[in-house]
Structures are given as C-alpha cells and as structure tokens.
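FIELD: query
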Amino acid sequence: NFFGLQGRVNLKLNSMSYKQNESIYLDFTIKNYGNEVIRIYPTTENLQTYQFVITDENDEILQTREPIKAEILKSSKVKMMNLVGDKVKEIIIHKNESFTKRFNLHEYYEFIPGKKYYVTGYFYPNFTEDKNTFAKSENQTIFQIEKRKEERLYKRHQDSELTTDGLSPEETVYLFLGAELKKNWNHYFKYIY
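FIELD: result
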C-alpha cells in the first residue's frame, strides 16, 4: 500500500469562531497526491480509524462524551466496498482524488465559551491489522467559542423618582440668560458649574 508515500490528511473547519451550542463541523480529508492507487480500510467504529486530539489554550486535552459518529461526504469516483460482513470497508482512492468524512465536534465534546481550541487529527489506514501505522494531519485547526453576551436590563426611571436639588433646569437657564441680558456678570457666572 502506498498510503505512507502518497496519502495526506487535512482538517478543515467552516469558521474560526463559533457561538455556544452551535454545530462545529470538521472535515477530515484523505487525499492521494501520487500516481498509484491507495487502499484504506477504515473501521465503522469512528474513533478507531479517525482520532482527534483537541487541546485548549491551557494545553489541557479534552475527553469525548461518547464515541464519535460521522457522515461521509460524497467524493468523486471513490468506491466503497463492503467486505463480507466485516466492520471494515475498503475505500479505493485514485490519483488526485480525496475521501472526506465530516464530524460534528459539538455533539461529542464539551467546549467552554471564551477559550481557543486546537484540533490535530490522526488517521489509521488499516486499524484492524496494524494499530501502529498512522498519519498525522498536515495542519492543525484552531477555533474559538464566543462568550454569550449577557442581556442587560436597564431600570426605567419614572418622572416621580427624579428629585431636584435647588433650582430646576428651566429655572437655571432662565436666570442664566436673564443675567446675560442685564449684563449682571456676578449672577451670570453664578449659574456656570
């Protein structure tokens, strides 16, 4: 099998910033960059063939809630052959073709708002027969969960709650303009605070 020489693994997210409880779709793509055909044998148990390491900004590794399930995106000319009742499917990837599997990370990981997360993928081309051979993703995706904006409730003030200390604003303006008209400068500067 030529996977180690020709196959590459890439991760892709739709966005770098997500709201709390929003779906986070990660595309796990295996592409054949060589001339020879690549055969991979992913298991139907998704965490065996497709594995992730998700760390937060404090380098703490997140644990999954339950096994990850994924949906297979249609790729051009990729053949999926079911071997006789096995839990393994053979996928043949020709030159310049790719196979993509999509995972919704939000369903399986608990993300804390306000933190950045880093995702690295590991792909095992034939997990049932060789658990030591894997390919690390060429890239590391980064995303952030935004903090929920708190709604602020402002207290409405009634006119009856307003208290006046001394003169009302209307009286102050009247006296101020009256002092200017009469050129009584002592009273004029008295109303400037």
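FIELD: remark
The first strand starts at residue 7 and ends at 13.
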